[in-house]
Design goal:
The complex is a heterodimer of chains A (about 325) and B (about 240). By secondary structure, chain A is an alpha/beta fold. Chain A has 13 helices and 13 strands. The chains are: A alpha/beta (about 325), B mainly alpha (about 240).
């Protein structure tokens, strides 16, 4: 009998999760408690030494808890068979870790193969996933060495999704990719997440990436203490303390502008000026104004019809 | 020292003028003695080398499994195989004969001990060179330890293992020519027979050339095997 593969999204609970290494002062992760709702992207962010990666690896038990607990849909990771637990969790790492000796199709089919799925099933599944991550079907027969860094990370993502896991762990997945490709991968990841709706724990050291990707952000400070756990907007607008304020940066007010779109603002009557879509972020609109030396922008809907205007003063208020 | 005599000692008094004058290369002698001397010696040589490489590979692989899994035992295994490699073969024969007699076993023990170092080292280095992120991804995807070894570490070590096998094969084919110091087998036999005959040039060149050719052919076959088994290396 072929065992069923998991599906849907799971709720993930860190309950006083603690990791200490023997002979080392202080904890790597200290009594971390937070709940990631099913289908939500939780970004763990913080300076190096903040225990982000450790916290992530506690979930699939590549690192074992010292005390406390982590539960996936109510079941403690401690109580689950190690191999079964990991097969049910998508795992994406910065260095991707594709198997160099396997074709892209075989790489993507890793977990289904562990579940005993037949070759034909894996072939179909990998074609689906290649399409999902935006790669041509012709990639199936290639080897990882023949792909660019960005393409490899797409395959890494496809491999993690292949077993349809309810939970994904992503450890700086776009960290080694150049900024332009990284931005595109982030956008595509968000689009993909709208389709697959997994519970995602995403580690990064880049606060901008955290703001862009996260439904909620957990900021960890040195020693694995949770400094703040909230939505990107709340973290930018109401940092819990000086550490968080410093970590998000002095330009946090500007960053917050990126979280609002023009559609959320009260628009003036249609006027002449450089055109912009109403889905544009306030930050980008401001940048456009500055670049065009304009005082007013004409806001259009998706069809290009001008629906209103926004002035420099209104944007800044 | 025991030197097993070859069956063919060219008779300088008869045969072609080339043979009588001990010319550089007498094709008629080769033609005459192919089936009674050269071909049997070649087949024996292949057998000597194949046994040594096969047994050596199995032993080295078992040792590599242990040395890879338990890092502490790697240095002692390395030192022993280093040591075996440095013993001169003739000395090793002298040591072994009292225990294993004038037998194939004596020759094979010597030949096997020379393959161990090369095979073991390449296996260990190949396994150690597997990138950490790849192993991390395998474990994170839910491979058991055995699956990680069989499906990831071992295949990725294959290029290094096969390289070791090539070196061991070529050197074993060459070293196997000393077998006639113990038993009358292999291409060493016509070589020694020729040496004892005031150096019969044709036989030396032919048998020596056959050793070289055999080594080259074996190496070539292993290169083909390597390409077949590790297609990703050239991707």
């Amino acid at each position: 009998m072929i065992p069923a593969m998991p599906g849907q999204a799971a709720e993930l609970v860190f309950d006083e999760a603690t990791k200490r290494y023997e002979g080392r002062e202080g904890a790597a992760v200290e009594r971390l408690s937070l709940t990631v709702a099913a289908g939500e992207i939780c970004v763990l962010v913080g300076p190096s030494g903040g225990g982000k990666t450790t916290a992530l690896r506690l979930v699939n038990r590549l690192i074992e808890l010292t005390s406390g607990d982590i539960r996936i849909d109510g079941t403690s990771v401690r109580e689950q068979n190690l191999v079964q637990l990991r097969r049910g969790i998508g795992y994406v790492i910065q260095q991707v870790g594709l198997f160099p000796h396997m074709t892209i199709e075989a790489n993507i089919g890793t977990v289904p193969r562990l579940y005993g799925r037949p070759r034909s099933w894996i072939h179909t599944r990998s074609q689906e996933l290649l399409e999902l991550v935006g790669l041509d079907q012709s990639y199936a027969k290639r080897y990882p060495a023949q792909l660019s860094g960005g393409e490899r990370q797409r395959v890494g993502l496809a491999r993690a999704l292949a077993g349809n896991p309810p939970l994904m762990l992503m450890d700086e997945p776009f960290g080694a990719i150049d900024p332009i490709v990284r931005a595109r991968l982030q956008d595509e990841f968000l689009r993909l997440q709208k389709e697959v709706r997994k519970t995602v724990v995403f580690v990064t050291h880049d606060i901008d990436e955290a703001i862009k990707i996260g439904d909620r952000i957990a900021i960890l400070r040195t020693g694995g203490h949770l400094a703040q756990f909230d939505t990107p907007r709340a973290i930018l607008e109401k940092p819990a303390d000086d550490f968080v304020a410093a970590f998000v940066g002095a330009d946090r007010a500007l960053k917050a502008l990126a979280l609002h779109t023009l559609a959320e603002l009260e628009l003036g009557p249609p006027a002449d000026g450089p055109k912009c879509l109403r889905t544009m972020t306030v930050r980008d609109a401001l940048a456009l104004l500055l670049q065009k030396h304009a005082n007013v922008l004409a806001v259009t809907d998706e069809s290009g019809t001008v629906v209103g205007s926004i002035t420099r003063d209104a944007l800044l208020s | 020292m025991i030197v097993a005599g070859g069956p063919v000692i060219p008779n300088f008094g008869s045969g072609s003028s080339c043979e009588v004058n001990n010319g550089w290369f007498c094709t008629d002698w080769v033609r005459q003695h192919w089936s009674d001397t050269l071909q049997p010696a070649l087949l024996q040589h292949v057998e000597l080398a194949a046994i040594a490489i096969g047994v050596g590979f199995v032993i080295a692989f078992a040792l590599a499994l242990v040395g890879f899994r338990f890092r502490l035992v790697d240095p002692p295994i390395g030192i022993v195989s280093d040591f075996l490699y440095t013993i001169p073969s003739l000395a090793l024969f002298q040591i072994l004969v009292p225990f294993t007699g004038i037998s194939l076993l004596t020759v094979e023990i010597a030949l096997v001990s020379y393959t161990l170092l090369i095979l073991y080292r390449n296996m260990i280095e190949g396994l150690r060179a597997v990138p950490e992120d790849v192993v991390d991804a395998a474990r994170g995807s839910g491979f058991t330890r055995a699956q990680t070894f069989r499906r990831v570490e071992l295949p990725l070590a294959l290029p290094a293992i096969l390289t070791g096998l090539r070196v061991a094969t070529v050197s074993t084919i060459s070293i196997a020519t000393i077998a006639p110091f113990v038993i009358a087998k292999g291409l060493g036999q016509p070589i020694y027979a020729a040496l004892s005959q005031d150096i019969f040039k044709t036989e030396i060149f032919t048998a020596g050339g056959m050793v070289i050719a055999l080594a080259l052919v074996a190496d070539g076959l292993l290169v083909l095997l390597q390409r077949r088994l590790t297609p990703w290396v050239r991707a």
